[in-house]
Structure of glucan endo-1,3-beta-D-glucosidase:
Amino acid sequence: MKSFGVHLFFLLFLAAIASVTVQAFTGTYGINYGRIANNILSPDDVVTLLRAAKIKNVRIYDFDQSVLKAFSGTGLELVVGLPNENLRDVSANADHAMNWVKDNVLAYLPDTHIRGIAIGNEVLGSSDEFSGFLLGAVKNVYNALDKLKLSHLVQITTAHSQAVFADSFPPSSCVFKDNVVQYMKPLLEFFSQIGSPFCLNAYPFLAYMSNKDQIDINYALFLPTKGADDPKTKLHYDNLLDAQIDAAYAALEDAGYGKMEVIVTETGWASHGDENEAAATANNARTYNYNLRKRLAKMKGTPLRPKSVLKVYVFAIFNENLKPGPTSERNYGLFKPDGSISYDIGFHGFKSSSADSSLLSLKEIRASSWSGSYSIILTMATALLLVL
C-alpha cells in the first residue's frame, strides 16, 4: 500500500505540472519489439542493443513484466500493448480496465517511461471478431488513466492496417470502407477529443507484392523513379510510403477529421521469403530501411502535410522464428536473434562475445538514463517525498 501511495503521489505531481497534451512518440524514428520467438536476446540485452543504436522510442505488443522491468531506469520511451484477446473483458468491465492499468502501467511508473498504450492491433477492417469491443476498451482504459491522473502522461492509441481503406490510389481518393465506418467514426471522435493520433501500419513491401505489375519497385524502395502524380491535388509522390500516408490523411479528411496527425506504427521490408516472394531479399530490405532512415532524418512531412514531421516505428528489432504465415513474416528484423545485424544500415550489432563489456555498458546506461526535464522532475518529487 505504501508503494502504491508513493507512485500515486509522484504521478499526481507530474500531472499537476503538465501543460501540454501527452505525446507517446517524441522523436521521428522508433522500433517495434516483437517477441514471437524462442531464440532472441533477453530484455536486458535488448536495452543495451537499443541504447547502442540510439533508438529511444519502442513499441511492444503486450505488457510483459520482464520487459517493463528491463526498461526501468533506462530512459527509453515505451508504448505497451493491450492485446486483441483482452479487449472484450476490458470493454465490458471498467474495474477490469482500472486493475489492468494499475498492475501494468502505474506499478512501473515513473522508472519505466511508459508513454502510451496501444489498445489492440489492426482490429478493424478484416474480421469483426473484436471490432465491437474496441471503442469500449479505449474509453475504459482512458477513464482509468484519467482517474489515476495519468492521462497527461500516457497516450491512448490503436493501430490500423490498410484494410480499413476502400481505395488508396490516388491518395486523394482514399476513404474508409463502408463496413468500417460504423466503428471508425466514433473512435475518431473520441481520439479527437483526447488528442490521440491516427496510427497506421503501412507496408510498401506488401503493396508492391500485391501489385507488381502496377508499382515500380524503385518507387517502393525510395529509389529514383518517375514517381506518381495525384490528378486531384496535383501533388507529386516520389515514394510509395508518402502516398500511403497521404491516403490515410484523405480518408480522415473525408470522415471529418482532417486535422488528426498520422503516425506510422509499423513499416518494414522482409529480407527473406518464399518462392513467390521474390522481392523479399536482404538487399531490398537494406535499401528500404536505409533510405527510410535518410527520409526521416530530413524532418519533413508528406506532400499533403508538409509541415507535419513524419514519425515512424520500424518493424522490427528481430526476426521472429515462431510467427505464423509466409516466410517473409519471420524475416523483418533489423537484427538477427543473437543481436548481430541482419544487414548494414548504420547500426552496430550486439557484441555477445564480450560479456563484461556488455554488462558495463548496461550499468552505464542505467546510471545515465534520466535526462532533461525527467531528471528535474524526479529530483523535485523525491525532495517533496522526503519532507512529507
